[in-house]
Structure formats: structure tokens, C-alpha cells
Amino acid sequence: MKVLIVGSGGREHAIAYSVAKSPKVDKIYCAPGNAGIGTVAECVPIGPMEFEKLAQFAQEEQMDLTIVGMDDPLVGGIVDVFEEKGLRVFGPRKNAAILEGSKAFSKDLMKKYQIPTAAYENFEDPQKALEYLEKAKFPIVLKADGLALGKGVLICNSLEEAKDGVKEIMLDKKFGTAGNTLVVEEFMTGREVSVLSYVDGTTIKTMTSAQDHKRAKDGDQGLNTGGMGTFSPSPFYTKEIDEYCQKHIYQPTVDAMRAEGRPFTGIIFFGLMLTEQGPKVLEYNARFGDPEAQVVLPRMKNDIVEVMEACIDGKLDEIELQFEDNAAVCVVLASEGYPVKYEKGIPITGFENFQGKDGYYCFHAGTKLEDGQIVTNGGRVLGITAKGANLKEARKNAYEATEWISFANKYMRHDIGKAIDEA
């Protein structure tokens, strides 16, 4: 098989790594890819939003499968363009990707189908949002409705902060058109868990659990980022919680989308909050998480291509997902200053330290090849992942491996998975 992957981050590198292990696959292409992906795939200089060019490339090169890693192209309708041309593609159509593309849509869906989530209100008028906040209980959460690179969520502890937040999102348009509609949500407390799943429109099969660390600095301080590290599995995600979620959250979401005439094929990422009242949905994503993919996929025993093809063909019920009985931790190496301002083009060394070391992975996110040298090309530069017999060992291994890589302005959190040691 020939496979095309659309995207250029750490998630796409983790997908490419998994695809490369499939005995079904002879050749992988990635558009646009990055320096690390270039070691397992041929990078093609086509942007992820250039749907017609991508589809033309897939036709000309006779791709057997295209995997869309990123949210923007999915929400924009890349799958519809590919399907219209008779191309096999893994991911939800535009009318299903709205599950991630509009937080207001997903909240209304959960309310209609009684899927547990935080109480909320949607606003298109900033004045009405401000009036509502005058009577609200704090802390409270403000969310830009559309895609905002994982950064469009503000937790406000006072009315003043909330007023500033409404201005930032709806009037100053900090997140662009994503802020045309505002979701105001009750603040939930508890442990966060991410559960990724494969869906074929009817059947859903969940993967092993994970937990992300969104804040830029140790101790969950600093600004929200795209994710500074992850661990898998979550020791807080018990068998009882899983059974509850399967019955009240996972299958009901798939059934609700089908009932709405928006059958979902691809990946649904469930962001959950384990509250005292039980698990509730924080958010949905319509693709693999980043950096969740970097700890979940290395632990998956199945052939990823086989699973994705089963989703496309509506045969997911014939697949039994299997995961290794171990743990994985990913620590993101970022450029100092991320997520605000940071330098690019800084040389990176030490990649050779990962060669031949089983259970250690260096997933590239913001890198590129410049005159034969790999340099930084983004805020989140690399995802250093390591496995271990348990979470404590995986964490120790991952942090040891972060020392194998050097670049000026290297920055990371030092407490990824620390909650595990304290649990």
C-alpha cells in the first residue's frame, strides 16, 4: 500500500511511525511533514488546507489510503473533497468534524442526548454574555466556539477577569472568527483524563487512557499551550469509570451523531473530567490528541492501517484493540518563550542517541531540515517518549532521554506525570 498522511506535527510523526510498522505498507508520504517524519516518509510540500492539490497528488500517485492528522483540514471538509474523487480517506466528513469545530454545537448535542457535561450557555452577543456573567458563580470558564490551537479556553476567577475574557475573545478577536460565538461554562473540578477512540459510524472502540498537561509551566502554572507532555495509562481511570463512560458517554455520542444525520468515522477524542458527581465531557476532538498520540500509539499492538480500514469499511466490530501492559510518558521539549514568542532556526543535536534503543522515541513537532542540519521550527519542538514497566519507570526513562537532546533555549516542564508519584 501507499499511504499519505496530512499534517506536520508530533502527532503526525507518531502516526507515521505506527503506519511504518504495518506489513501492508510499502511507501509513506506526508504533506507537508517535518524533519523527523522525513526519516520514515517522503515529505511533500503541499499545505494541509490545499485540499484540491492534496487530492490531485493522491490521485496521481495512486494512494491507497490518506490519513488526516490535523483538526483544521477535517473541520474544513478535506474528507468530503477526497471522497467525491473516489479516494479512500480516514477521518470524519465536514458535517461530523463539527463535533470539534463548534463547541456550541457539541454542548447542544450533549444537552439534547443527555450526555454528562458541565452546565453552560452560548452567546453571540457580547453584551448578553456580560449581563449573564453579572449573576454567575465564579470561577467560570469561557470558551471560543471554534478552533483555536488548543488555546481558546479561559478560566476566570472573578467578574473582572471574565469581562476581560469576553473582550479578548468576542471583541478583540484574539482567536479570530473562533470567537464569534462564546460558550460560558460552569467550572468543574476533578482529574482530567483523555480517552481516544476509533469510530466507524456505528461502532466505537476506545484506546488506552492518557492525561495531558496543558499549562506552560511546572505546577500547572502559566499560559495554556497545545500540551507540554502526557502519560498513559491514567491510574485514575478505573474499570468502573470505563464501564460508566462506555454506557453514558462514548456509545451515546456515536449514536447521537448518527441520529443527527452526521455519522462519524475516524477518531473521537474524549476530554473527560472525573468529578465527584461522576465523569463528564470537557470537550470533544475529531482527531488524535497531540501529545496524547505520542504515548497511546507506541503502546498499541494492532496494525493501525488495519484498524483504520475497518473504520472506513464499517467493520470495526470485527477488531479487538490490544495495548501493551506497560506505561509511556512523553515530555515536550519546547522553545523558551512558547506559547508567546520564541526563536526558530536553532540547531538541534543528539538524535543519534535514540538509535537502537527500544522503548525510546523522539517525535518531531516543530523541526525542519536546513542545509543538512535539523533546526527548530516551532514552539513545541520535540516529544520525547519512553516506555516503562509502570508509570514511575516510564517517567524516569523519559526525563533521562530529554538529556540526550541539545539545543539553545530548550525548555520543558519537570513535573509531567508527577501526580502519579503522589497518587
TrEMBL record:
Name of encoding gene: purD
Catalytic activity entry: 5-phospho-beta-D-ribosylamine + glycine + ATP = N(1)-(5-phospho-beta-D-ribosyl)glycinamide + ADP + phosphate + H(+)
Residue ranges of domain ATP-grasp in the record: 107-313
Full protein name: Phosphoribosylamine--glycine ligase
Pathway: Purine metabolism; IMP biosynthesis via de novo pathway; N(1)-(5-phospho-D-ribosyl)glycinamide from 5-phospho-alpha-D-ribose 1-diphosphate: step 2/2
Positions of region (Disordered): 209-231
Any GO molecular function: metal ion binding
Xref: SMART domains: GARS_A (SM01209), GARS_C (SM01210)
Keywords, sorted A to Z: ATP-binding, Ligase, Manganese, Metal-binding, Nucleotide-binding, Purine biosynthesis
Cross-referenced InterPro entries: ATP-grasp, ATP_grasp_subdomain_1, PreATP-grasp_dom_sf, PRibGlycinamid_synth_ATP-grasp, PRibGlycinamide_synth, PRibGlycinamide_synth_C-dom, PRibGlycinamide_synth_C_sf, PRibGlycinamide_synth_CS
Gene Ontology biological process terms in this record: 'de novo' IMP biosynthetic process; purine nucleobase biosynthetic process
Family: Belongs to the GARS family.
Keyword Nucleotide-binding belongs to the record: yes
Amino acid composition bias (Basic and acidic residues), ranges on this chain: 211-220
Keyword Cell inner membrane in annotation: no
Organism of this sequence: Blautia hydrogenotrophica (strain DSM 10507 / JCM 14656 / S5a33)
Enzyme Commission number(s): 6.3.4.13
Cofactor(s) required, per the database record: Mg(2+); Mn(2+)
